[in-house]
Write a structure and sequence with these properties.
Elements lengths: L1 E3 L5 E4 L1 H10 L2 H15 L3 H4 L1 E2 L7 E6 L2 E8 L4 E9 L7
Parallel strand pairs: 2-6
Antiparallel strand pairs: 1-2, 3-4, 4-5, 5-6
Length: 94
Protein backbone atom coordinates (compact mmCIF):
# COMPACT_ATOMS: atom_id res chain seq x y z
CA UNK A 1 0.00 0.00 0.00
CA UNK A 2 1.19 3.49 -0.80
CA UNK A 3 0.66 6.03 1.98
CA UNK A 4 0.60 9.78 2.42
CA UNK A 5 0.35 11.58 5.71
CA UNK A 6 -2.43 13.96 6.61
CA UNK A 7 -3.33 16.21 9.50
CA UNK A 8 -5.42 13.66 11.30
CA UNK A 9 -5.83 10.39 9.39
CA UNK A 10 -3.15 8.56 7.46
CA UNK A 11 -4.19 7.98 3.83
CA UNK A 12 -3.33 4.63 2.20
CA UNK A 13 -3.97 3.59 -1.39
CA UNK A 14 -4.44 -0.08 -2.26
CA UNK A 15 -2.01 -1.32 -4.90
CA UNK A 16 -4.75 -1.65 -7.56
CA UNK A 17 -5.57 2.04 -7.08
CA UNK A 18 -1.94 3.07 -7.52
CA UNK A 19 -1.20 0.82 -10.49
CA UNK A 20 -4.55 0.87 -12.32
CA UNK A 21 -7.11 3.43 -11.19
CA UNK A 22 -4.89 6.51 -10.85
CA UNK A 23 -3.08 5.71 -14.11
CA UNK A 24 -6.41 5.64 -15.98
CA UNK A 25 -7.84 8.86 -14.53
CA UNK A 26 -7.94 12.06 -16.57
CA UNK A 27 -5.51 14.60 -15.05
CA UNK A 28 -8.33 16.98 -14.12
CA UNK A 29 -10.12 14.24 -12.17
CA UNK A 30 -6.90 13.18 -10.41
CA UNK A 31 -6.36 16.81 -9.35
CA UNK A 32 -9.88 16.93 -7.89
CA UNK A 33 -9.39 13.61 -6.11
CA UNK A 34 -6.16 14.84 -4.51
CA UNK A 35 -8.02 17.92 -3.25
CA UNK A 36 -10.81 15.78 -1.80
CA UNK A 37 -8.30 13.55 -0.02
CA UNK A 38 -6.38 16.48 1.42
CA UNK A 39 -9.34 18.63 2.44
CA UNK A 40 -11.94 16.05 3.47
CA UNK A 41 -10.54 12.60 4.14
CA UNK A 42 -7.60 13.55 6.34
CA UNK A 43 -9.80 15.60 8.65
CA UNK A 44 -13.16 13.84 8.97
CA UNK A 45 -13.54 10.77 6.75
CA UNK A 46 -16.72 9.65 8.56
CA UNK A 47 -18.51 12.81 7.43
CA UNK A 48 -16.90 13.10 4.00
CA UNK A 49 -18.61 10.25 2.19
CA UNK A 50 -21.82 8.27 2.08
CA UNK A 51 -21.92 4.69 3.43
CA UNK A 52 -22.29 1.87 0.93
CA UNK A 53 -24.48 -1.21 1.25
CA UNK A 54 -24.45 -4.85 0.16
CA UNK A 55 -21.08 -6.30 -0.80
CA UNK A 56 -19.53 -2.87 -0.18
CA UNK A 57 -20.80 -2.61 3.40
CA UNK A 58 -18.13 -1.00 5.57
CA UNK A 59 -16.99 1.22 2.71
CA UNK A 60 -17.92 4.81 1.95
CA UNK A 61 -17.94 6.77 -1.29
CA UNK A 62 -17.39 10.33 -2.41
CA UNK A 63 -18.73 11.59 -5.72
CA UNK A 64 -16.67 13.85 -7.94
CA UNK A 65 -18.57 14.46 -11.14
CA UNK A 66 -18.96 11.11 -12.89
CA UNK A 67 -16.20 9.52 -10.79
CA UNK A 68 -16.39 7.77 -7.43
CA UNK A 69 -13.76 7.40 -4.74
CA UNK A 70 -14.43 4.36 -2.52
CA UNK A 71 -12.70 3.98 0.84
CA UNK A 72 -12.90 2.36 4.24
CA UNK A 73 -11.85 3.72 7.62
CA UNK A 74 -9.79 2.06 10.33
CA UNK A 75 -10.56 4.16 13.40
CA UNK A 76 -8.16 2.22 15.63
CA UNK A 77 -5.23 2.91 13.31
CA UNK A 78 -6.58 6.35 12.28
CA UNK A 79 -6.22 5.31 8.65
CA UNK A 80 -8.29 5.79 5.51
CA UNK A 81 -7.77 3.07 2.90
CA UNK A 82 -8.73 4.12 -0.62
CA UNK A 83 -9.89 0.97 -2.42
CA UNK A 84 -11.05 2.31 -5.80
CA UNK A 85 -11.29 5.46 -7.93
CA UNK A 86 -13.26 4.87 -11.11
CA UNK A 87 -16.00 6.16 -13.38
CA UNK A 88 -19.46 5.61 -11.89
CA UNK A 89 -20.34 3.24 -14.73
CA UNK A 90 -17.61 0.79 -13.68
CA UNK A 91 -16.88 1.37 -9.99
CA UNK A 92 -19.24 -1.21 -8.50
CA UNK A 93 -18.67 -3.85 -11.21
CA UNK A 94 -15.00 -4.61 -10.52
Amino acid sequence: MKTSTGDKYLICYEENVVHKDIQNLPKTIWSRVKEIVKERLTLSPEKAGDPLLGEFKGHRRIRSGDYRLVYRISKLERTVIITAIEHREYIYKS
